[in-house]
């Protein structure tokens, strides 16, 4: 399976990608732990090693360069390897913005969602994480219950991303059309028009930019000051 990571990228990226692509759980852990112990900031690892690896996994799947079982195993290994990094990120007191976040039903990778949620919390956003396999109706019900201004939806595969198109009509039916929809994941990076087609308001290319995109959308819709 060929990689399209930047040729000038830090070698840690390729090492991590090869480790998870080769189903080498122990090596993926050693790479990340070794980087943290040598003084690399967790935020840098998340944005410059792990996020590009997730994007590459999504590309391989969408282009038929990997089997579903390979992508599943690689994603689970990456998820496990990050469990010790996420708690190292700073957190801020929750402010005036609430986001309901989840991975759309049928999609079995939650790492991208976890990264976004961690960066949102670090930016002072109150996050309600619905986890994996979230049906469109549950996103809407949770937004209503929590008084959320934004729904953030993650998808790794194109056929699961298509389900997001059900969310906006459900919001309209509930009188919640003021709630914004942000989407993220490999399908939206490789097909920018997909954001419009699923009825979303915007996307962010990585978890580090998700907090800014979230607040910018809330400001645009007059939901925060």
Notes on the structure:
The protein is of the alpha/beta class and 225 residues long. The chain has 2 domains: 11-88, Methyltransferase, Methionine Synthase (B12-binding Domains), Chain A, domain 1 (Orthogonal Bundle), CATH 1.10.1240; 98-221, Rossmann fold. 52% of the residues lie in helices and 10% in strands. It has helices spanning 11-21, 25-37, 42-62, 68-82, 111-122, 136-146, 158-161, 167-173, 186-190, 194-197, 207-220, and strands spanning 98-103, 126-129, 150-154, 180-184, 202-203. The protein has a 5-stranded parallel sheet with strand order 2-1-3-4-5, with helices on both faces. The longest helix has 21 residues, at 42-62. The chain is globular.
Question: Helices, strands, pairings?
Answer:
Elements: H1 11-21, H2 25-37, H3 42-62, H4 68-82, E1 98-103, H5 111-122, E2 126-129, H6 136-146, E3 150-154, H7 158-161, H8 167-173, E4 180-184, H9 186-190, H10 194-197, E5 202-203, H11 207-220
Parallel strand pairs: 1-2, 1-3, 3-4, 4-5
Helix pairs in contact: 1-2, 1-3, 2-4, 3-4, 5-11
Quick recap:
The chain has 225 residues and is of the alpha/beta class. The protein contains 11 helices and 5 strands. The chain folds into 2 domains: 11-88, Methyltransferase, Methionine Synthase (B12-binding Domains), Chain A, domain 1 (Orthogonal Bundle); 98-221, 3-Layer(aba) Sandwich (Rossmann fold), CATH 3.40.50.
